[in-house]
Design goal:
The chain has 373 residues and is an all-alpha fold. It has 19 helices and no strands. It has helices at residues 10-29, 38-41, 44-49, 53-73, 84-111, 119-130, 134-140, 153-171, 176-200, 203-208, 210-213, 215-229, 234-258, 266-282, 290-293, 296-303, 305-321, 328-359, 361-372. Helix 4 (53-73) crosses helix 12 (215-229), helix 7 (134-140) crosses helix 8 and helix 9 (176-200) runs antiparallel to helix 12 (215-229). It starts with 9 loop residues before the first helix and ends with a helix.
Length: 373
């Protein structure tokens, strides 16, 4: 998920560009709610692009893991308490978009007769999403879950793993080689575990378990530790960034012919490795790929990516419910326009003020105190 970009931070700028590309792919992957897919499925490359939402989410996870790990390490290696304020800030930031969405969906469910969800479904859904345990409910009782909020499994996994990552990095902050080894082992174990769960429990559990989807977050943290131990020179950074970008293009392009479950096997592992390499390269001071990822349009999409991610899917479902008899072109135009409008409004009215509050020293003190209480 995006962090606010600043003009003085080229690394954040390139990360925002990466997020901008990722959110476009995520939105395209959910377009099946609006447009026919038969014509897309006949062309393997197009099918790959329109079915690579998991690969795009890998990019969000890896960037988030890198930034969170870097923030913990930036606290120094002296004595002190675990920096829970970082996890609390993460919770507040995600909630600045998630909670307004829940409020709007609750109101719509009361006023919209076409909303198919029952009161019981809404209660269980809203509670699980609000407590960031949504992916657990989807695994065990998806029949009692709102379909139009299914994509929010991502924010649940993100926050759950962020809490654990803060503790792990803080405990091992003085022993970076050990931390590097633990993170590398964790990435491999999660990949193997995901393949095992896919084999014995099926794709739902493999897709939604916290323990099967956290390898990109651990990989992003791994990149942060590795580049701290061994800062990259310009040539090495360019090689890593370029190799990672090419690897991701190959994964996305091949997704159409590899099958829908490929990400849960080899494609997911390849996407994580390529993304970690790309993130590590982009973080170097030499700014590789800054021209490509530094485009203003991509950066703007990156800063809006949390809002776009949270709102696009329920908007798509709502438009689809109310556009029976429309052709897919006007349905898509209306859905995309509404998504963009809602994203811009909520980013300005909810997310941006929250970010400003979190940057204030008093907010950090209040956040830390609230977590400690």
């Amino acid at each position: 998920m995006p962090n606010p970009a600043t003009p003085t931070s080229p690394r954040i700028t390139t990360f925002d560009g990466l997020r901008g590309i990722a959110i476009v792919i995520v939105v395209l992957s959910h377009g099946w709610t609006l447009w026919p897919t038969d014509h897309l499925n006949r062309i393997p490359v197009l099918r790959g692009v329109f079915n690579s939402g998991n690969t795009a989410v890998t990019g969000f996870f890896a960037v988030g893991g890198f930034l969170l790990c870097s923030a913990v390490l930036a606290g120094g290696d002296g004595p002190g308490r675990i920096p829970w304020r970082l996890a609390a800030r993460r919770f507040i930031r995600l909630s600045s978009q998630v909670y307004p969405l829940l409020l709007v969906v609750a109101v719509v469910s009361l006023l919209d007769p076409t909303d198919p969800a029952t009161d019981q479904t809404n209660r269980r859904t809203f509670w699980s999403v609000a407590t960031y345990t949504w992916n657990w409910l989807l695994q065990t009782d998806s029949a009692e879950a709102r379909q139009d909020l299914g994509h929010l499994w991502y924010v649940s996994v993100d926050l759950q793993v962020s809490l654990l990552l803060v503790v792990l990095v803080w405990v091992l902050r003085r022993r970076l080689p050990v931390l590097l080894g633990v993170l590398a082992l964790g990435v491999v174990v999660v990949m193997v575990w995901r393949a095992h769960i896919l084999d014995v429990e099926g794709w739902v559990s493999a897709s939604l378990r916290t323990t099967t989807r956290c390898d990109p977050i651990l990989g992003g943290a791994l990149a942060a530790v590795a580049t701290r131990l061994h800062p990259l020179g310009e040539r090495a950074a360019r090689l890593l960034a370029t190799s990672g970008a090419v690897g991701l293009v190959i994964v996305v392009a091949s997704a159409g012919g590899a099958g829908d479950l490929a990400y849960l096997g080899w494609a997911g592992a390849a996407a994580v490795v390529a993304t970690v390499a790309l993130v590590a390269g982009l973080a170097a001071p030499s700014r590789p790929l800054s021209r490509q990822l530094g485009l203003r349009s991509l950066r703007r999409l990156g800063t809006l990516s949390l809002a776009l991610y949270v709102w696009h899917y329920p908007v798509f479902w709502a438009v689809a419910r109310h556009s029976h008899g429309w052709s897919w072109v006007p349905r898509t135009l209306v859905a995309v326009a509404l998504t963009a409008l809602v994203a811009v409004v909520t980013e300005r009215l909810c997310e941006r003020p929250t970010q400003g509050w979190l940057r204030r020293p008093r907010a950090e003190t209040a956040t830390t105190a609230s977590v400690a209480s």
